[in-house]
Write a structure and sequence with these properties.
Elements (H helix, E strand, L loop, with lengths): L20 H27 L4 H13 L9
């Protein structure tokens, strides 16, 4: 897998494009890191004999249940 960083357009809660270069840089780097971690975890699971579709469902379920956690006790 290449180490290129995809560049996305990111939107605020108000559906406006986020124009801060530093914010976009951090968001794009985070996206790339998450993509690499998920790919590595998926590859590991399949190499260890897991069903590909089952692993994908578990990853999707995790993402679907994400909640903002900063400041929560």
């Amino acid at each position: 897998m290449a180490n290129k960083i995809d560049k996305f357009i990111w939107y605020s809660k108000g559906k406006k494009i986020i124009s801060c270069d530093e914010t976009n840089k951090v968001l794009n780097e985070n996206h790339s890191e998450v993509q690499n971690i998920i790919q590595n975890a998926f590859d590991d699971a399949v190499l260890m004999g897991c069903d590909e579709e089952d692993v994908k469902k578990k990853i999707i379920n995790y993402v679907d249940n994400l909640e903002f956690s900063l400041g929560k006790k």
